[in-house]
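Subject: sequence -> structure tokens, single chain

Hey, anyone have a minute? Need the predicted structure for the following. Not urgent.
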Amino acid sequence: MRTWLHLFLLVPLWMAACAAAPKPLAPASPDSALTSADKLFERGMEFARRGDTLRAEQYITLAVESGYPREQSILPLVQVCIASSRLRAALTYAQPFLRSHPRAWPLRYLVASIELALGHESAALIELQRVVAQQPDAAHAHYLIAVIERDSFRDDAGARASFESYVARAPRGQYAPEALAWLADHPAVNGTDPVESSAPAGDVP
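Reply:
Had a minute. Here:
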């Protein structure tokens, strides 16, 4: 399964977090002049923009320890861990936050993508189903659900429903040609076309 391919879906979030122009950097180790949480966080994002993800993680973590809001730091922190291939470290930051902020669906989507990259397809599917239950128009989540159902569980009916949900929400999306081609090659049994995604019924925590 093309697990690493799916992490490319994270690029728009990463680019949004690091879009500002780089600024001159101070010495690598934290110094006494950087006493405020805001400055520590800003320095961490500067390192992230420069591709120094380990120092970015260091400074963002220091910012949080100094009082910078976790709600504003968690996505960049997880993303710098992903960029440095520290996927398990990313989960150690993200999962406790999700337990106290269960409706943080962009973070949950990142966690699902990480689980998928680690080969934890069942865990990824659970997280993605929670995403679409909270955010039905999250097209990429429907796509990843379809890929897992198709490739890992050989569930053609579920994959069909999820690919259809993706195409309905992103008819010109990056993965629409792939989804449409698969749907054309796998017509519904007895001519019935499922239209709902494979998200579980009822409330999802």
